């Protein structure tokens, strides 16, 4: 196997492996997992495929590989993606399932909306193991299907039509999307919200695009060998935080050597153990999918819910999780961002009581869940509870302040103390 350049990307010399700073800035893509999304931002995926031997590929630097990803123009593909989640959230026992699964409603009669409503169904990817079939043909044609043992859920975008169908309930969801809405923006040409949800990543490309956004002073990026993924030769790009206090240990992106398309994305927590986020193709084909792949007609007898009806009833908002600090305004005061890079913490004041008082009114199972997730802490700020996952943690003080980030418990307590 040919050795690969392991030059780090830093902000100290103005150059990256001989690449001028201007060019480096053009490839600023590495960013920590969004700290405000908590559960939604920490969707994880299982290893896609065991390596079948490391291929011998030409030497490439980290900067060159990042530019190869940025320059990738792959718009046509189809394949199978394996998904799992391991956030370390305890089971709720009698309540059934994991915490993530319990708090990700599935719609239907239980959730008050259609069982086929996309955002609620895609939230299910936040827990357990899943197999997806994906296909794309340019910015206006995509299909994603979640395969269960006895059912299938599909989301199809074809031009200005968006359909979602749940075979288990025989329910369909229909919306319209502006032409070209999927390309580069969540809003279409007329500024209308895109009907096909983009909140939750579901393929290696999605995760890589989120993780490769701002490679800067807080990040080390290297090329660490090669791999064979889904029958394709790939380079391994390794991204690590330089800062201490992050819950993220490293991110590895397997990049197709020919197309520059990410084939696998793996995130390891700093606490060790198996991957918390790991998504990869088990099969992939870069040829044009058949046009019929994106055709859909509701089966006979299917219940069809129009997006306008769901929106008017407020049902399409029921499952949406915050994507960033801007989405947290409704939880209290204007969010305050503390720090930068991998140790960024979002602070806000709910103006209400903290977890100690709130838990008094909870049923026994609710208190049990809160206690299982939380550690009682004290400091200059007073007292509170740190609620933990393997990636994103949140400190809720007893006077109603919240500190949340992909950082350790100690980092949250330090930030709360400094804010007093």
Strand content: 25-35%
Helix content: 10-25%
Strand order of the largest sheet: 7-8-9-10-11-1-2-3-4-5-6-12
- Count structural domains: 2
What is the tally of beta strands? Answer: 18
CATH topology of the largest domain: outer membrane lipoprotein receptor (LolB), chain A
Order of helices and strands: HHEHHHEEEEEHEEEEEEHEEHHEEEEH
- Give the radius of gyration: 22 Å
Described by the principal axes of the CA atoms, the overall outline is: globular
Largest sheet features: 12 strands, mixed
Number of helices: 10
**Class derived from helix and strand content:** alpha+beta
Mean pLDDT: 74
A few lines on this structure:
By secondary structure, the chain is α+β, with helices and mostly antiparallel strands. Helix content is 16%, strand content 30%.
């Amino acid at each position: 196997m040919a050795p690969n350049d392991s030059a780090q990307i830093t902000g100290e010399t103005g150059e990256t492996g001989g690449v001028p700073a201007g060019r480096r800035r053009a490839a600023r893509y590495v960013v920590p997992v969004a700290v405000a999304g908590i559960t939604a931002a920490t969707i994880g995926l299982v290893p896609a495929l065991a390596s079948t031997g490391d291929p011998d590929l030409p030497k490439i630097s980290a900067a060159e590989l990042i530019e190869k990803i940025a320059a990738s123009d792959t718009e046509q593909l189809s394949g199978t993606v394996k998904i799992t989640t391991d956030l370390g959230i305890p089971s709720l026992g009698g309540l059934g399932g994991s915490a993530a699964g319990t708090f990700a409603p599935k719609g239907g009669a239980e959730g008050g909306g259609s069982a086929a409503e996309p955002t609620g169904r895609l939230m299910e990817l936040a827990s357990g193991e899943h197999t997806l079939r994906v296909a794309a043909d340019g910015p206006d044609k995509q299909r994603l299907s979640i395969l269960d043992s006895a059912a299938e859920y599909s989301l199809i975008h074809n031009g200005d039509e968006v359909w979602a169908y749940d075979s288990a309930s025989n329910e369909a969801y229909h919306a319209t999307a502006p032409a070209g809405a999927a390309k580069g923006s969540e809003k279409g040409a007329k500024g209308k919200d895109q009907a096909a949800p983009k909140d939750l990543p579901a393929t290696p490309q999605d995760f890589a695009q989120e993780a490769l956004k701002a490679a800067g002073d807080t990040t080390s990026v290297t090329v660490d060998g090669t791999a064979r993924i889904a029958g394709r030769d790939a380079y391994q790009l390794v991204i690590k935080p330089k800062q201490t206090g992050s819950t993220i240990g490293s991110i590895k992106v397997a990049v197709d050597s020919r197309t520059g398309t990410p084939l696998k994305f793996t995130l390891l927590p700093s606490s060790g153990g198996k991957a918390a986020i790991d998504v990869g193709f088990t099969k992939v084909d870069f040829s044009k999918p058949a046009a019929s792949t994106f055709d859909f007609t509701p089966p006979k007898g299917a219940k069809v819910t129009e997006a306008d009806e769901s929106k008017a009833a407020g049902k399409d908002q029921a499952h949406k999780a915050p994507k960033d600090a801007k989405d947290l305004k409704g939880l209290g005061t204007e969010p305050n961002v503390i720090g930068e890079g991998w140790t960024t913490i979002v602070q806000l004041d709910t103006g209400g009581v903290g977890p100690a008082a709130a838990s008094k009114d909870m049923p026994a199972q609710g208190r049990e869940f809160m206690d299982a997730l939380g550690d009682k802490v004290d400091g200059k700020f007073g007292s509170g509870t740190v609620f933990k996952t393997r990636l994103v943690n949140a400190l809720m003080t007893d006077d109603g302040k919240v500190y949340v980030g992909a950082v350790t418990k100690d980092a949250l307590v330090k930030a709360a103390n400094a804010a007093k």
